[in-house]
Design goal:
With 296 residues, the chain is an alpha/beta fold. It has 13 helices and 10 strands. The protein folds into 2 domains: 178 residues, NAD(P)-binding Rossmann-like Domain (Rossmann fold), CATH 3.40.50; 95 residues, no CATH class.
Length: 296
């Protein structure tokens, strides 16, 4: 178990990530509350977390006794302030909006005890920027779980410019105690580690098609898809070739537009115009098609 124990936590959000993060913490011995805007959605998040824990037990990934104890450690609430005020760790898993996260963290920073650790599950937004409105940015960091969080072992711990090293170490020890494989990203850069590597693959796949080395269909074949997280090459190939799955892939790109724009700006280049969707930056980032027309 961790030498520096964080014994209570709140997980904000009941989408794809929040319940799995809560289940992970509960398995590690942390009393965890899932927080959502309404009692109904909070209860649904709790139901999801319980179901994910059962999956672990049914597949021999956790002992049944451990799962039963973990179930008892998770609660749900729609009382945001009252919940985050009394825990030692908060993990935010809200939509990828910089403005939303900045407001949320500034508010939590104002109402929480100064020793409370504030973490974001952002997949690529700058944690330094998220913490910029906080009076105590030293207790703010990223804990990026990979989807599905109750199954995927990797967690990226990203340090902001002012993040305390002892706090980062305490979080790393806790995540290890929860059965995860935490890696520390020392510099706060867009895309962290995993997403930067994934976007590099997407760019290279587009270049391969643009240079005529291979057709989009072959770039996205099953063998390549298996070598990528969620088939990054497949996403590019579908959009390049006009496959009817491209619309579904585009939804995924749109959902992560804020993160992708940060990565594109940092790298200083855009995907080549071979049929892939590129992102134009500006006051309102938006996808642009190959002929430069804004998508409706």
């Amino acid at each position: 178990m961790s030498k520096t124990r964080l014994r209570t936590a709140a997980v904000i959000g009941t989408g794809m990530m929040g319940p799995g993060i809560a289940a992970t913490l509960a398995l590690g011995g942390v009393r965890t509350t899932i927080v959502s805007r309404t009692g109904e959605s909070a209860a649904q998040g709790l139901t999801t977390a319980h179901a994910q824990l059962r999956v672990l037990a049914e597949n021999g990934l956790a002992e049944m006794l451990q799962v039963r104890d973990a179930v008892d450690r998770i609660t749900a609430s729609s009382a945001f302030d009252r919940t985050v005020e009394k825990v030692e760790l908060v993990i935010e898993s809200a939509p990828e909006s910089m403005e939303l996260k900045q407001r949320m963290f500034a508010h939590m920073d104002a109402i929480c005890d100064k020793t409370t650790v504030l973490a974001s599950n952002t997949s690529g937004l700058s944690i330094t920027a998220i913490a910029s409105r906080c009076r105590h940015p030293e207790r703010v960091l990223t804990t990026h779980f990979w989807n599905p969080p109750h199954l995927m072992p990797l967690v990226e711990i990203v340090l902001g410019e002012k993040t305390s090293q002892p706090i980062a170490q305490a979080v790393r020890e806790l995540l290890s105690a929860c059965g995860k494989v935490p890696v520390v990203v020392k510099k706060d850069r867009p895309g962290q580690l995993g997403n930067r590597l994934q976007m590099a693959l997407v760019r290279e796949a587009a270049h391969i098609v643009a240079e005529g080395i291979a057709d989009a269909e072959d770039v996205g074949r099953r063998g390549l898809e298996r070598s990528t997280r969620r088939g990054a090459a497949r996403v590019v190939a579908n959009v390049c070739s006009g496959d009817d799955r491209a619309q579904r892939d585009q939804i995924t790109l749109d959902e992560h537009a804020d993160v992708l724009v940060h990565i594109v700006v940092e790298v200083g280049e855009r995907l080549p115009k071979v049929g892939v969707v590129v992102l134009e930056t500006g006051p309102t980032p938006h996808p642009v098609d190959v002929v430069g027309q804004q998508r409706p």
